[in-house]
Amino acid sequence: MLDKYIEYVQFEKRYSPHTVTSYKKDLDDFSHFYLKTEGSEDISKADKKVIRNFIVELSENNISKRSINRKLSTLRSFYLFLLKIGEIKVSPAESISSLKFYAEKQIPMSQEEMQTLSDRVLPEHHDLLDQCIIEVLYQTGMRKAELCGLMFEYVNISGNELRVIGKGNKERFIPISEDLSHLLESYLRIRKPEDPYKSYFFVNKKGKKLSEKFVYVVVNKYLSLVTTKEKRSPHILRHSFATHVLDNGAEISKVKKILGHSSLASTQVYTNANIEQLKKVFNQAHPRASKKEEL
């Protein structure tokens, strides 16, 4: 059943390779737990009690609530699939609620920090691939998985445009600046992919496709040179891109398209990044605030 489900999400639902891999790992983790506690590998026979015990064990092993909720979401999807094909009559995961948690506040890089990184730090290190990784993530809001999977044929340097395949295999087009186009053109002169990886635009120094871990290490390394903020990940560059373009007057609906969000609510998260700044501007501009200061 596990193989059938993986084929279903891969070929019928057309989820991204990254999502399919995550689903498979979540189900493998639950299968190992089920074998250990119930002596069977057939998780289609699992009940609510086993799933709850699985959640308890994950919590005791200090797995984050976000990760536990993702695994629970995978199990819900798996059992809905079994319902759909008539393998079970009731989903054991149906009435199990996700764990409540407060999302950790994501603090974007400041525009000044990013300017320092682009103007001084990156040029000093003379690594064109590293520079491309940082600039593409920050100037496009692309996800790290999307950058790693960016196809050579989808990069239109002369047209200043990238074609990106995002979550759910959804396609979108992202405009890029002439400066970024020139940077990508410079990278092409040193790009030496091995035969199996020629279709990918970015390759590492060994000519292989970039790994997400490699991208994370590069981003963390350079952000550490310009900030003391705790979060120094590729996602922070995506967050910073959205925050900065919205701060500078971009329409939220257009930012939504560039980021590849399916709902406006996902993009609106970034409008909350500078609430304190908005409050300050409002208080300075509002006539009532002026009168209070005079008093």
Automatic annotation (TrEMBL):
Keywords: Cell cycle, Cell division, Chromosome partition, Cytoplasm, DNA integration, DNA recombination, DNA-binding. Its main location: cytoplasm. It is found in: Cytoplasm. GO terms for molecular function: DNA binding. InterPro entries: CB (IPR044068), DNA_brk_join_enz (IPR011010), Integrase-like_cat_sf (IPR013762), Integrase_catalytic (IPR002104), Integrase_recombinase_N (IPR010998), Integrase_SAM-like_N (IPR004107), Tyrosine_recombinase_XerCD (IPR050090). Pfam families: Phage_int_SAM_1 (PF02899), Phage_integrase (PF00589). This is Integrase/recombinase XerC. It comes from Chryseobacterium oleae.
